[in-house]
Amino acid sequence: MRAFIAVDLSERIRAKVEAIEHRFGELSGVKLKFVNPKQAHQTLRFLGNVSEERVEPIKRELESINMEPFNIVLRGAGFFPASRKRIRVLWVGISEGVEELKALQEQVETRMVALGFPAEKQPFSPHVTICRVKRIESDAGLKQLMSKIAELSDVEVGEMEVNAVKLKKSTLTPRGPIYEDVYVKELF
After folding, report:
1. Measuring CA to CA, how many Å separate 85 from each of 17, 30, 137, 140?
2. What's the pTM value of the predicted model, to 2 decimals?
3. How far is CA 80 from its chain centroid?
4. Catalytic residue list contains 22
5. Residue 35 near residue 131, CB atoms below 8 Å
6. 55-104 per-position pLDDT tens digit
């Protein structure tokens, strides 16, 4: 199964993400593929294709995570990579609770590396992907996109409690991925 470990967003935050997506959807001159806001999440670790026999050890490692619930604040829109000519991802940032989120991600990362998953090459950058940029069709499209990002650079998205880590299965379909919870580790 194709799998990843994540923190789901609250329904209230997902509604705000949807509203932000609509604001980007008003643009012309760019081709965007939006994330289904009902599935928006903060990825802690992408695992890739995982055999069935690896699922139980992953669950055991996640069960051993020792962390209390904490709050995060989502604020502002931005993009990856930093080059304006090669924008690939639009995201909503996390402005508070970053250190706690990084500590949680480090626990997940350490446990997955212990299970034989390769270490992540890129440093963890807390964000929630809202869409992928498929194509920028013109300079005017790029200008509109950059203007909208600037307009939303400090947009208030909201605060939520991080109280669980989830092992999720991702099934790719022509309409986009479908995510299912395989295991939920409650934080306490």
Report:
1. 25, 12, 11, 13
2. 0.94
3. 13
4. no
5. yes
6. 999 999 999 999 999 999 999 999 998 777 789 999 999 999 999 999 99
How far apart CA 51 and CA 37 sit, in angstroms, is 28
DSSP for 96-128 reads: ESHHHHHHHHHHHHHHHHHTTPPPPSSPP--EE
Q: Decide: 158 and 74 in contact? Cβ < 8 Å.
A: yes
Q: What is the pLDDT of residues 136-183, one digit of tens each?
A: 999 999 999 999 999 999 999 999 999 999 999 999 999 889 999 999
Q: d(Cα 47, Cα 111) in Å, to the nearest integer? A: 12
Query: Could you give the CA distance from residue 71 to residue 74 in angstroms, rounded to a whole number?
Result: 10
The catalytically annotated residue of 127, 166, 168, 185 is: 127
Among residues 4, 13, 14, 41, which one is catalytic? Answer: 41
Which residue ranges make up each domain of the chain?
Answer: 2-186
Euclidean distance between CA atoms 94 and 117, whole angstroms: 26
CATH superfamily entry for domain 2-186? Cyclic phosphodiesterase (3.90.1140.10)
